[in-house]
Write a structure and sequence with these properties.
Blueprint (H helix, E strand, L loop, with lengths): L1 H9 L2 H8 L3 H15 L4 E3 L4 E3 L1 H25 L7 E7 L1 H10 L1 H7 L3 E7 L13 E5 L7 E9 L2 E5 L1 H6 L14 E4 L9 E5 L2 E5 L5 E3 L2 H9 L4 E5 H10 L3 E3 L9 E7 L6 H13 L2
Parallel strand pairs: 3-4, 3-5, 8-11, 8-12
Antiparallel strand pairs: 1-2, 5-14, 6-14, 7-12, 7-13, 9-10
Helix pairs in contact: 1-2, 1-4, 2-3
């Protein structure tokens, strides 16, 4: 039943099989066996997609709340354990994931030997309930209103950074408009749009479509290009903190880059909180208050 719900909600045998830890062919065989036992087709399959039949849609509507009740009952029973255990699945953007891996996850693994962490980085927004995550991470204003949110760390600050070697070759920017004559390392968002670099100082705001020969959809690749003296990158401070400390990168236009809204870990409020997630939140609050 759980396998059917995963296939039906993910609309993909491959994605469902990955979550179940089984081969797509084995999952497909299991679904055909289910259909054979019931004597009705539940799924319409093509080489590219999976869609529910009318019977499959009715079955999903009945099964989903039942399985959620079972999951909640198991989580409630697990919560009575003296020692937190289980796997906590978290969806987070790349920069937030770096903060968690540097400051939180090592402590979770050391303090709670029976807790596992499954961290998925994704630039696009996902429905954490539908996608099977225990929690997600987003900036404050984008957290869904029906979620419980736990703020952590300082405000998210974006910085323009470059290597000292690059800055020796060019005229150092003094104002955001000076970037229009620089080699900028641009960021393509999950929607496909290019990110506009946003600046603010003393109430004055501006946003620029900067020029540049390099465009990446990964913060890590943007940082790497900046380290290789390829230009100026506009990235979260958390992604470049070690390189700022070592001097391999230096901030540019720092007075135009104020801190923004903070990050929040969020989770559904209508469910029993699994003990593994409780342990994770405990460490998060202690390490990134």
């Amino acid at each position: 039943m759980n396998a059917f719900v995963l296939v039906a909600t993910r609309r993909s045998f491959r994605r469902a099989a990955d979550e179940l830890g089984m081969a797509p062919s084995s999952l497909s065989h299991a679904m055909r066996s289910l259909e054979s036992n019931l004597g009705v087709r539940l799924l319409n399959r093509t080489t590219r997609s999976v869609a529910l039949t009318e019977a499959g849609d009715r079955l999903l509507a009945r099964l989903s709340p039942m399985l959620e009740d079972v999951e909640a009952a198991l989580a409630e029973a697990s919560a009575t354990r003296d020692v937190p255990a289980g796997t906590v699945r978290i969806n987070a953007p790349e920069t937030a994931a770096l903060m968690l891996t540097r400051h939180v996850i090592p402590c979770v693994l050391d303090r709670f030997p029976e807790v596992n962490v499954d961290l998925v980085t994704e630039g696009r927004f996902v429905d954490i309930v539908e996608a099977g995550f225990d929690a997600g991470v987003r900036l404050g204003e984008t957290v869904p209103q029906d979620m419980v949110a736990v703020r952590f760390g300082e405000g998210m600050q974006f910085l323009t950074v470059a290597s000292p070697t690059y800055l020796k070759r060019v005229r150092r920017p003094k104002a955001p408009e000076d970037l229009l004559s620089q080699a900028c390392i641009r960021h393509r968002m999950p929607s496909g749009k290019l990110y506009r670099w946003e600046f603010e100082r003393s109430g004055e705001k501006t946003a620029l479509d900067v020029p540049g020969r390099l465009t990446f959809n990964s913060i890590a690749l943007m940082v790497e290009a900046a380290l290789e003296h390829r230009g100026i990158a506009y990235v979260p401070k958390a992604a470049v903190a070690p390189f700022l400390q070592s001097g391999r990168l230096v901030p540019v236009l720092e007075d135009w880059c104020p801190p923004g809204p903070g990050l929040f870990l969020y989770y559904p409020g209508h469910r029993q909180i699994p003990s593994a997630l409780q342990a994770f939140i405990q460490v998060l609050r202690a390490r990134l208050p």
